């Protein structure tokens, strides 16, 4: 340990803001570790939180830009969740080279997401929480004609999902567990 490491540790322990930040971060990580295995409960909680946010937007008839920004962010996170981590075009080129050389790739290649499920949920939770907090301040309520934002979001959603579905069909992968067989251990 050199002198700068000891000096930084000393400053962090004497600075009350840094000490509080470190404690808050440790508490946050503790609770994130506890709720990680509860997948259904996490997503139900996020759904309730988004429903409360939408109810807040509808009842107050404001904060449409905040709602639009949240929608765009959640859409980008969802696309990262559906997208494979590795480029399928490179994998297909490797498979074609192996077939041309007379070797058949028989190894199982699992679907690995660009954005794992827990990070997707965590990012969505943080963004929804931030959006709910933003609706508490009047300066974030920017006047805008909301039907245009809604139409643009729907168009953006349709175009991006169409492209994603075409990619899934072209490279023959299913990113969701819907319809997949589940195997159980026999006793």
Shape: globular
Report the sheet with the most strands, covering strand number, pairing sense and barrel closure. Answer: none
* SSE pattern, N- to C-terminal: HHHHHHH
Main structural class: mainly alpha
Count of helical segments?
Answer: 7
- Count all strands and give the number: 0
List unreliable stretches of 5+ residues: none
Please give the share of residues in helix.
55-70%
Estimate the strand proportion.
under 5%
Number of domains: 2
Mean pLDDT: 84
Rounded to the nearest angstrom, the distance between the terminal CA atoms is: 53 Å
Instruction: Specify Rg, calculated over alpha carbons.
Output: 23 Å
Observed structural traits:
187 residues, mainly alpha, 2 domains, 7 helices, 0% strand, membrane
Q: What does this molecule look like?
A:
Involved in the retrieval of endoplasmic reticulum membrane proteins from the early Golgi compartment. It comes from Maudiozyma humilis. Keywords: Membrane, Receptor, Transmembrane, Transmembrane helix. This is Protein RER1. One of its GO terms (cellular component) is endoplasmic reticulum. The protein has about 190 residues and is an all-alpha fold. The protein folds into two domains: about 1-35; about 35-170, no CATH class. Helix content is about 70%, strand content about 0%. It has seven helices and no strands. Helix 1 crosses helix 2 (about 15-35) and helix 3 runs parallel beside helix 6. The longest helix has 26 residues, at about 145-170. The model has no long low-confidence stretch (mean pLDDT about 85).
């Amino acid at each position: 340990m050199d002198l700068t490491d000891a000096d930084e540790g000393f400053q962090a322990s004497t600075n009350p803001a840094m000490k509080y930040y470190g404690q808050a971060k440790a508490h946050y990580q503790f609770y994130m570790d506890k709720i990680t295995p509860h997948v259904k409960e996490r997503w139900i909680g996020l759904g309730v939180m988004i429903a409360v946010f939408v109810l807040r937007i509808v009842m107050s008839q404001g904060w449409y830009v905040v709602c639009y920004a949240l929608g765009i962010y959640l859409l980008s996170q969802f696309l990262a969740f559906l997208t494979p981590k590795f480029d399928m075009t490179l994998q297909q080129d490797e498979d074609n080279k192996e077939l041309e050389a007379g070797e058949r790739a028989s190894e199982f290649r699992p679907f690995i997401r660009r954005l794992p499920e827990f990070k997707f949920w965590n990012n969505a939770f943080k963004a929804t929480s931030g959006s709910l907090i933003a609706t508490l301040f009047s300066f974030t309520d920017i006047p805008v004609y909301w039907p245009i934002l809604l139409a643009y979001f729907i168009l953006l959603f349709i175009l991006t999902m169409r492209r994603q579905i075409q990619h899934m069909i072209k490279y023959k992968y299913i990113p969701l567990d819907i319809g997949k067989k589940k195997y159980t251990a026999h006793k």
